[in-house]
What we know:
Layout: E1 7-17, H1 21-28, H2 34-37, E2 41-46, E3 49-57, E4 64-75, E5 80-89, E6 92-101, E7 108-118, H3 126-151
Amino acid sequence: MTTTSGTRVNFSLERTLPIDSASAWAELTDWAGHAEWIPMTRVELDPDDPAAFVAFSGPGALALEDRMRATQSSFDGSSGRCLVAKLGPVLVGEAEFTVAPGPSADSAVVTWREDVTVPHLPGFLAPVAARIGAALFSWSLGRMARHHQRNN
């Protein structure tokens, strides 16, 4: 069951990564590959819909189930934008990322935005959750770039 009550948490961050924009796009849109650089995460793809997937983040039975579907995705070879609907059962809302060429040929600027409803989170903790979320996503993007560099 999808929850729509709770506290809204939103954040955005921008990070320049030491990989080119096509590589950053490929890593970010490899849904199953997120498990390689987001700690304690596994991803299950929907075999009937390549845009749909479920990420399970956290230890074992305590993992948060995050059902998602990419609803918009476009990349022109150097810049792109992807919008992902968060479908519950816990987090509801959307995530968005953009990729653009960075200041050098072998760099990319990734902007990540989350706007979700978190059930059972007291409203006064929304700013704290947003700061923690932004820090964790920024750290994970750095892990993504290092993962790419090691494997290419």
